[in-house]
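Fresh eyes needed here. I'd like your take on this protein's tokenised backbone:
***
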Amino acid sequence: MTGRVLPYDVHGDGPRRVLALHNWFGDRTSFAPLRAHLDDASGSYAFVDCRGYGEAVDHPGEYTMEEVAADALAVADDLGWDTFSVIGHSMGGKAAQLMLLDAPGRIESIIGISAVSAAGFPLDEETWGLFAGAAEDPGHRRAIIDNTTGGRYGDAWLQGLVDRSVGRSSATAFRAYLDSWSRTDFHERVRDNPVPVLLVVGAHDPALGADAMEATWLRWYPNARLEVLKDAGHYAPEETPQALAEAIEAFLAS
């Protein structure tokens, strides 16, 4: 980690190089349960904090997916990685596709975990109010997390994710990222891209589950495939970390 790029840390020292981008409610610590199940000897995984999150909570920025992509490529430069794969969780999946467009020769594959597509995620007026209000109202964050995990978790689990989200993100960045990941559409730029893509979704995610992947990613990426985790909702790195790690490592090995 250096002062020239955003905060990151590397897990493992294996030959497969992978850069991971977190979701809207997380920071790089949200991958901690997943990290416990990754094979240190086969992969080197760099986990990055986006501007406005985690150790980068005070970093100023425009808070767009384009900026996330540029910052992530700067981390790869700092690591000396010419080529690598990208994991993108939810909004991180949209930024991963911009990395592919900005540096097509460097991105070996994309792993999208409940990933937002290149077309964004259109919201009706009521849902937009819920999501936009989540920047300032923790209750909105709780409602979104509860819904996107199928209403299967108790107060302690939900409150833990809410508290981390509020404590490790800037409300300004959180609100600004929403516009970028939900409302911008560049899907025509990725159509027919041959990059290998693994899409991992939770069976209990009503927002970015199998149907959403089939309507977007799987139409545009000819070398994309889908895997559904039966016990997960939107937060597979925390809900089913072992199953997710196994899916990721099998894909990278292939």
